[in-house]
Amino acid sequence: MSTGRVVLVGGGPGDPDLLTLRAWRALAEADVVVADRLGPRSVLDDLGPDVEVIDVGKTPGHHPVPQDEINRLLVEHARRGRRVVRLKGGDPFVLGRGGEEVLACREAGVPVEVVPGVTSALAAPAAAGVPVTHRGVVAAVMVVNGHDPLPASALAGLRDEELTLVVLMGVAGLDDLCARAAEAGVDPSMPVAIVERATTAEQRVTRAPLQDAARAAREVGVRAPAVVVVGRVAAPDLLAAPHLPDLSEGREARGSRPSDSPCTPNGLSERREARGSRASDNSRAVERGRLVGTAG
């Protein structure tokens, strides 16, 4: 029996424009796409009718397809000679259990590749106008899972104002996070920014000092998916110089505006055709349904 392959694709934070070219190429070649709830779900609409889509998305407190079953699906379809794309939100190796899926494939003798993605740990703050590092303010970043207790090193770094803390999956545990930080002696006025649905048209940013952050989130009804940023870089006036635009407002304005030059494989293909002789001689087009990419 022929052996297919598995490609773990980092789908980025939500906006399909932030998919890499390599990710588009993998999707263009896929026979099966095993998709998470987060990430650029809209790209599934561009798959051809012969591509099987398996939804394994999780919601907070509800995991209908356990990780062991996801691993089994990847291996089973690849062993049937199929090209399997595991479409994940963000980056596969940033709190995405990508390492477990790679191990499952390798232990089963299935070829596996990882396509890095734009992690929401960095993209969400950036889309909200929050630089996770800023010269003269902070030069270190720690990314943690909001389902777990904050490590002592994170609390110490916040207390000493030596790092920016980025919390993924942290909405449900926001009260606990704020309480633990306060107990550890973190300045109660430490800025907090909560970015919901980053890089999409529904992006919303809630800002408050640490002592009020949990209450502010409840008042406005913050919901997952959201990224919590704690640190001096989250101060609303950090980039408020007159010559700098408000990046979060710019994102909101762009959200509902159609792109003049869509960054999809179709759009890339059209521009490549227009350039004609400038295209590489050894490139080839791969078309599956409406998805068109360049396969290496």
State the main characteristics.
296 residues, alpha/beta, five-stranded mixed β-sheet, 9 helices, 12 strands, disordered C terminus
Shape: elongated
Strand order of the largest sheet: 3-2-4-1-5
**Could you say which structural class the secondary elements and strand pairing correspond to?**
alpha/beta
Q: Radius of gyration over alpha carbons?
A: 21 Å
Short account of what is shown:
The protein has 296 residues and is an alpha/beta fold. It has helices at 21-29, 67-79, 98-107, 120-127, 152-159, 174-183, 210-220, 247-255, 265-275, and strands spanning 5-10, 32-35, 52-55, 83-88, 112-115, 141-145, 164-168, 191-196, 204-209, 226-230, 284-288, 291-295.
Question: Overview of this structure, please?
Answer:
By secondary structure, this protein is α/β, with parallel strands linked by helices. The chain contains 9 helices and 12 strands. The strands form 3 sheets. The protein has a 5-stranded parallel β-sheet, with helices on both faces. Strands 6-7-10-8-9 form a 5-stranded mixed β-sheet, sandwiched between helices. A two-stranded antiparallel ribbon has the order 11-12. The longest helix has 13 residues, at 67-79. The chain is elongated, with a radius of gyration of 21 Å. The chain starts with a strand and ends with a strand. Residues 252-263, 267-290 and 292-296 have low confidence and may be disordered.
